[in-house]
Specification:
Oligomer: single chain
Shape: globular
CATH topology of the largest domain: Rossmann fold
Number of domains: 2
Number of strands: 16
Radius of gyration: 21 Å
CATH architecture of the largest domain: 3-Layer(aba) Sandwich
Helix content: 25-40%
Strand order of the largest sheet: 9-8-7-10-6-1-4-5-11
Structural class: alpha/beta
Bound molecules: flavin-adenine dinucleotide
Distance between the termini: 55 Å
């Protein structure tokens, strides 16, 4: 497998995340463009059972059923992946910008002394290696970067590609590499579930997002009601997260998450470039705004001009009536 391209895919509750499946699809596409072998690496409890789900995206799967016990999963993943990299010598390893993905990447960099391209929004195969796109200056420019060595890590944002099944699934290898590192002992002392994250914005097919137009934390009530009625998740702009109206887990944009739902309802959101870069690839964008000249009108598929406090409750009632 020397020279291969790998993806390290996150799992949640024993299943690969959508972001993980996107990385597998991207790795498969890069492997074909570069004529190099590919693999998806899954580490954690239930990795073997989840392997077939990720194999459907094309790359072969290396499944490591490691139990983290009280240790952070990123540390357990990094030491196993470092051992595998030393043994099999892939050239490029893609990871996600999730919390675990970033932690794993940081430890891998330290263990392997590999360079990394971070916050990458797209990757293609260039003449002799991967070329990564990174959005800079608040989304006003997109740069192209290459690694200066013939190996390295590439940390990819969600929604760089859509997860797709390949024409044939990859094979699955169940392995148990000895941890190739002696990491400082870190113990997880508590796990806190976020109360309002019933549907996570990364996985949601519908997002109803609120901006400064909701007026305050209580203004998110009408946003949540519509999200619940549509079976979707609640998103937010940085302005409202910085104001403490809702948690950072909901923030969409340059310094938040990138999302790609089928439907994105933006209520009281002006459509600043830093917000746009995180949601512009959504299927259908519906904006509700008092100001017909708000920048979001330029890229929304539908603009409803009016007060969100009048429109959202009526929309919610209409959705509930249809579903009753
Ligand atoms: C380096 C950097 C990184 C950033 N990262 C992000 C990021 O990740 N995500 C992000 O979102 N922003 C980010 N920002 C901030 C961004 O520039 C904007 O300030 C922010 O997106 C604006 O949020 P908003 O649309 O909620 O607020 P505003 O721009 O204030 O817009 C509020 C909108 O609500 C409308 N409105 C008001 N009342 C109502 C009502 N009752 N009914 C209907 N409409 C109403 C108004 O007409 C207005 O269009 C970043 C900025 C910088 C400099």
């Amino acid at each position: 497998m020397a020279g291969a391209i790998w993806a390290v895919c996150d799992m949640v509750d024993g299943l690969p995340t959508r972001h993980g499946r996107e990385l597998a699809t991207l790795t498969w596409a890069l492997g074909r463009a570069a004529s190099r072998p590919t693999a998806s690496v899954l580490v954690g409890p239930g990795a073997s059972a989840a392997a077939d789900a990720i194999a459907s995206h094309g790359p072969d799967v290396l499944a490591v059923d490691a139990d983290p016990g009280e240790r952070p999963i990123a540390a357990v993943t990094a030491e196993r992946v470092a051992a595998l990299i030393r043994e099999r010598q892939p050239a490029y390893v893609l990871l996600g910008t999730s919390d675990d993905g970033r932690d794993t990447a940081g430890i891998l960099q330290a263990l392997l002394e590999w360079g990394a391209l971070v916050n990458v929004s797209a990757v293609r195969w260039g003449d002799d290696g991967p070329v990564a796109e990174v959005s800079v200056f608040g989304g006003r420019l997109v740069t192209e970067s290459r690694l200066t060595q013939d190996h390295g890590l590439i940390i990819v944002r969600p929604s760089a590609v859509a997860a797709e099944a390949a024409e044939r699934p990859g094979g699955v290898e169940r392995i148990d590499p000895a941890p190739g590192a002696d990491l400082a002992p870190v113990r997880v002392v508590d796990r806190v579930g976020e109360a309002s994250a019933a549907v996570s914005i990364e996985e949601a097919t519908v997002i109803v997002a609120g901006g400064r137009g909701v007026g305050g934390p209580e203004g998110f009530g009408v946003v949540r009601d519509l999200a619940d009625a549509l079976g979707g998740a609640v998103g937010a702009t940085r302005a409202v997260v910085d104001s403490g109206w809702i948690g950072y887990a909901h923030q969409i944009g340059q310094t938040g998450k990138s999302v790609k739902p089928q439907l994105y309802v933006a209520a009281g959101i002006s459509g600043a470039i830093q917000h746009k870069v995180g949601m512009q690839t959504s299927g259908t964008i519906v904006a509700i705004n008092k100001d017909p000249d708000a920048p979001i009108a330029e890229f929304a598929d539908m603009m409803v001009v009016g007060d969100l406090f009048e429109i959202l409750p009526r929309l919610t009632a209409a959705v509930r009536a249809r579903r009753a």
